Amino acid sequence: MMTNQLLMNQIMEELLRHGVTVKPASQSSGGKIMDNFLNSTSTVPEFVGASEIGDTIGMCIPSVDALLLDHLHVQKRFTVIGILSSRTGAGPQIMAMDEAVKATNTEVIDIEMPRDTKGGAGHGVLILVGGYDPSDVRSAIQVALDNLSRTFGDVYNSAAGHLELQFTARAAGACHMAFGAPEGKAYGLICGAPSGIGVVMADTAIKTAGVNVLTFASPGHGTSFSNEGIVHISGDSGAVRQAVIAGREVGLKLLAQLGENPVNDFPSYIR
After folding, report:
1. Which residues are CB-contacts of 89 (< 8 A; sequence separation ≥ 6)?
2. Main localisation, per the record (predicted)?
């Protein structure tokens, strides 16, 4: 009888032969469970991986049905479709996918941010990526899943609300599609909930450094009626980073006035 370890080794060899890399669960960061199809009980071939971070699941359809493709709200048609879907977060998953498309031969073809009841004052997310090779698309989904503990590093929660800060020195397709960020330029996201905190965070950030304001989203404008104030900025990398940090500082102080200090579950990456 074949041992479990021998079977695992054969599976790994077959995956590597097809260009698919899998990160063992013991290497996942942040102390959260990061499932993939080697340590998961899922028998669904489309399953790529899942994380309890944001309740995020990644899947890949190697040959999507043409009838479904006709009705998906995608900007470009691909036969191979990758899916990253979550209950909470949105911003962190989008930033993680931004890194994924930089590292793989894939493109973001749709991003939607639903108002999710599990998300407190915020959103969930649906991200679709396309490619020509299933191994590329699976790799993109896995890269995004592996980045979640980093991109959730500047999400701060309390019983009363939350803050989210994001920064990249070089925006790619995900940031461009979701937030209108110019590709190849530095981009920052500054979000506060309740939404009024986000207004003050945005004002402080913009006054701190010379940045370009792309948009400001609020409950009735640019969000799925979430209770958030969100400013999207771009410009010089150092200025954008400085503005995001300034927004974070005032947001932490304001949200703490509602009863408890907001805390992040993972180390901050914006310094």
Report:
1. 53, 54, 56, 119, 122, 123, 124, 125, 148, 152, 155
2. other
